[in-house]
Amino acid sequence: MLERYLPILQWLKVYNRSTLTSDLIAAMIVTIMLIPQSLAYALLAGLPAEVGLYASILPLVAYAVFGTSRTLAVGPVAVVSLMTAAAVGNLALQGTAEYLTAAIALAFLSGVILILMGLLRLGILANFLSHPVISGFITASGIIIAASQLKHILGVDASGHNLLEILMSITANLGQINLPTLIIGISATAFLFWVRKQLKPLLIGLGLPERLADILAKAGPVLAVAVTTLATWGMDLQSRGVKVVGEVPSGLPGLQLPGFDADLWQQLLISALLISIVGFVESVSVAQTLASKRRQRISPDQELIGLGSSNIASAVSGGFPVTGGFSRSVVNFDAGAETPAAGAFTAAGIAIATLVLTPLIFFLPKATLAATIIVAVLSLVDLGALKRTWDFSRSDFAAMLATIALTLVEGVELGIIAGVGLSILLYLYRTSKPHSAIVGRVPGTEHFRNVDRFNVETCRQILTLRVDESLYFANARYLEDRVYDLVAQKPDVKHLVLMCPAVNLIDASALESLEAINHRLKDSGVTFHLSEVKGPVMDSLKRTHFLDELTGQVFLSQYAAWETLGRQTGCNHGIETRASA
Amino acid sequence: MLERYLPILQWLKVYNRSTLTSDLIAAMIVTIMLIPQSLAYALLAGLPAEVGLYASILPLVAYAVFGTSRTLAVGPVAVVSLMTAAAVGNLALQGTAEYLTAAIALAFLSGVILILMGLLRLGILANFLSHPVISGFITASGIIIAASQLKHILGVDASGHNLLEILMSITANLGQINLPTLIIGISATAFLFWVRKQLKPLLIGLGLPERLADILAKAGPVLAVAVTTLATWGMDLQSRGVKVVGEVPSGLPGLQLPGFDADLWQQLLISALLISIVGFVESVSVAQTLASKRRQRISPDQELIGLGSSNIASAVSGGFPVTGGFSRSVVNFDAGAETPAAGAFTAAGIAIATLVLTPLIFFLPKATLAATIIVAVLSLVDLGALKRTWDFSRSDFAAMLATIALTLVEGVELGIIAGVGLSILLYLYRTSKPHSAIVGRVPGTEHFRNVDRFNVETCRQILTLRVDESLYFANARYLEDRVYDLVAQKPDVKHLVLMCPAVNLIDASALESLEAINHRLKDSGVTFHLSEVKGPVMDSLKRTHFLDELTGQVFLSQYAAWETLGRQTGCNHGIETRASA
């Protein structure tokens, strides 16, 4: 029991010197990678740079204690930082104390929501984000993030909550373009794209082992940061208009519970819920990918608790919402991390950096951080998914397109809410007209098949309808319409058999419809039967009066129905000749 | 084509003298019943009494032209009148011209929405109102309506949008109770309850035929209206504080298109949508019940057009939202109506009443109308449904209880929206953990059964999982978790077969999960196979790259999978002994 909620107890027991060495090496590599990322994502969220560092210390320690993935690396990530900016930007101006307070409160609320979901085992809620919606949302977020960082590359002022606003604001201020900033921005972006695409093959060509080449290529941003910072300092570019990170308080964050503020919390609640679910879905998917590579297991419900405590740890130490990141987790995994202790060591590394390196960050150009972000998020943009989804399913495509369009035009929160709503409605619509078929007997067998596809025996007085879907509110009335239409079309019918081998569930609405069908068929002189009802469905029907009122019988097999009713009606079986051409 | 949109063309062709006689008799009876109802429901909607009459003339003619039910009687009904009061009460004060304008605009919008839904064949949307939600909503509405009419019975002032507000407002004003009003109110209520419960058996005991006794019992309200009106006039009760209907303009309503008012229409849009759907669901269910008694058919999509044109006709002639009513349709049916012409004749009857009877209505006490409403709506209250639903399904019960509670506490609109949302979420939750089973071979056969229930043959290197549900976004990740857990638990497994005989649909999220399962199993050295995939599902998989990337095969039958993989692995089949006790 204790081990379930404290996964650290499991791996700590078997911790040894070799695991320690692996974890330490991985932690060093991840630390180097995480420093520019943390600064950049704080910038993206509209927060001071040091907040990004704070969000990369305690949250990692909390995840090491409560998380179930051995290799997940937690911290600020792009999409969640954008959602933070959108949520907090509605309530306060960037740069104010209120803005920071709201971001911290958002992390705290999100942590509480995640832990509650974990304790209530509601990890399943994340399922309601269908894949097309999350994929469309991430693509649109990537586009918005890249657009929002353009201003740092150009050195102009701009703002806006959606793509159009951002682009118009940048266009209006194009006159402000700062040349030194633009040179730094463009060369950093070009360098990082080159690193991403070409450095690894180059290093392998030079004879480096693949894993090392991979890790070195991931360290590209650190080099960009170092070079542009040195250049800005050496050439005094700050006085020529290049915006830099500036004074960053050195020293570790103080620990403090966020103050209770009912108004603020209420305003942030929906945003916190959305951030929690989006962050959880992303994180769990990364954790699952890595775990299965080593045949390890993660527990989605305990992951909620792990991520929740990370967010509370972030809030307590002055940070903003965090979750498991894809690229850093892969680096952690590839660098050989074996236990969550690697995360704790990374935290220590970032803490040391916060103490030691902050003076060096002063001259780091914001354009370099923006370049880091742009290169990272453009890899999230996957417009090809639109084509693939279109080929596979039109209704999934509609949900994806709506999510992308609304996220770009109306902002992240409305985008994701509309996407979720639409994918649910489309699913209900798809199942609201279930596949059903009138069936007849394959001559000489006990099998029954669709009369439109096979040459089968039927009988004028007996009509058998097979439904290939669970019966529930979205299709209950369709079933009624179908039955009444059939009976109105075929005046000779005396018995209607509903064949239920694919009915996994009957809900109260469908029960009501079955009762209505029973009564209305009785009024028109038709006896209503069921056949091949599954065990659990039969059990639930037995708890109602339906079986008492049923005018006909429940047959175990369709063949039994055919035999019994055929005898009763003295039916002359005729072969239907409607076989498909 | 023309006949589809103008059902009148179908029945007019075969209209003859005998049909005419039947329709005329039914129309007379329904007219007598409809006059007090129309006045009462206008009162309930917070509108002048004559508006109820206006809503019972042209709408009936429009339905006779466009409707598909032979016997449905359209007009003002209780629940829709309450929803009208709630929607319009937010925007204007009762008794003002704005209030009437808004009610007319609501009827117009609702008509437009219904016709659009009909043309787009979206009758299916009504399905999203699950039975527990609609039943809970009607019960709660009945309680609110009865409570809201108490003030007329007591003769006190009161107002409020939900049960608590109404009851507190009445309690606060109990000092105002008017004795003559109370006497009229209580005796009318008692009389009407007696008529409803006891008059019919009494008349039958006196030797009257059952149908006549039934119709006479339904005319009880007319008697109550006549007697209390006479008493009020004769004893001059108006001067002793009995509130009466008062001056009602005599003459037919003028025809006028409602003016376009973008602000007003936008404010009413959601309300109009809810009223349209609730009204449609009620009306279609009545129409279907009556049609099946005579083996007739109705067309739900054309019904939307019929009800939509009724509402537009209502708006054009100064009325408020209407729909098909249960009790009046049953009377119409029992009185022998054969075609919608009976509705047109009823309209003529009400028109004559509007011209002739309005002076007589002056002294009609509001308490009598309130008694009519209370007796009518209390028959809608069905608290027993809570118990029945509890017995059948806990999640349907939760949706019903939430709808009742929220409707009573927060009002009709929030109540129904929350109910719909909750029933969708609960359905998704129920299907998010689909039934699945590890299966093995029944020795000596080609059948495969659950290893937990049967003595079956299995093989350590081959794992077969059968899923009994369509795979879609709500359960896609559950399937992944289940597969990863199984593989992590069983290190010997080399082949995993997913057996899909009950999978009717695979959406893009589930496809993504299958791809992830394929890749991750590959990473852990397990080959992934499918078996018994249905034709349409296979077709959609063929449009993707999934089958190219699949590490294993798609087997037509599970037996083929068993044979092929058994030979490959040189498997020694062992009998699983986990058969249930």
UniProtKB/TrEMBL annotation, chains A, B:
Chain coiled-coil ranges: none
Protein name, per record: Sulfate permease, SulP family
Keywords for the protein's UniProt record, in alphabetical order: Membrane, Transmembrane, Transmembrane helix
InterPro entries recorded: SLC26A/SulP_dom (IPR011547), SLC26A/SulP_fam (IPR001902), STAS_dom (IPR002645), STAS_dom_sf (IPR036513)
Subcellular localization, as worded in the UniProt entry: Membrane
Regions that span the bilayer: 20-39, 45-66, 73-93, 99-120, 132-154, 174-195, 215-235, 264-284, 304-322, 342-362, 369-386, 398-428
UniProt xrefs under PANTHER family: SULFATE TRANSPORTER
Organism: Marinobacterium sediminicola
Domain STAS: 452-550
UniProt topology in membrane: Multi-pass membrane protein
